[in-house]
TrEMBL record:
Belongs to the ELO family. It is an enzyme of class 2 (transferase). One of its GO terms (cellular component) is endoplasmic reticulum membrane. It catalyses: a very-long-chain acyl-CoA + malonyl-CoA + H(+) = a very-long-chain 3-oxoacyl-CoA + CO2 + CoA. GO terms for biological process: fatty acid elongation, monounsaturated fatty acid; fatty acid elongation, polyunsaturated fatty acid; fatty acid elongation, saturated fatty acid; sphingolipid biosynthetic process; very long-chain fatty acid biosynthetic process. PROSITE patterns: ELO. It is found in: Membrane. Its EC number is 2.3.1.199. Its main location: membrane. This is Elongation of very long chain fatty acids protein.
Amino acid sequence: MRDRKPYNLQQPLFLWNAGLAVFSIMGLIRFSEDFIVNWYNSGLKYSLCHSCNPDSVAAFWSLLFAISKIVELGDTMFIVLRKRPLIFLHYYHHVAVLVYTIHSGAEHTAPGQAFITMNYLAHSFMYSYYAAAAYGKKLPKWVSMIVTTVQTTQMFLGVAVSCYVYYLKVYTDYKCQQSMANLYLAFTIYITFAILFVQFFVDTYFKKSKSKAKVQ
């Protein structure tokens, strides 16, 4: 593989990203409505501490979400076959999300409703951007900056949700459907994600810009 030329794969890559973009948009619409309705009718505390009805549409899209985390490992295959740089953030993100999704699904973790909603939203932007890029569209820099900002914001919101649930479980008598083990895992993942995405944002949009300015 080292001595072979990189595969082009433009059409398969477009279809891959477009398919995941459509899936993410559909998942956002069908899953988030349950979370938003609970939030509107019963408040944020209730929506974060009570898991969705196992017979609901949201439960079905929660299952599809878990399966999609396995499917999305195919992103790495495209990077390897096209001989593009495989950064630590990429494979750490995929593996960590898969592990946390399986752990949360096994426990029916209630705040997972917020996490899944945010992830569907971020991936709707991300895969739509990737699909447009694979199609050959030259998008302005601010578009990719928005995508990365959405991803980074998701991580900080994940930390905020985890802090709120920790407060409820430790300092109040309110029953919240999330084990402490899962909560600590959420803290670990979202804090490391936040740090790595901020670093990626700075390295991609600020350090590269400065180096280009020096060359000019």
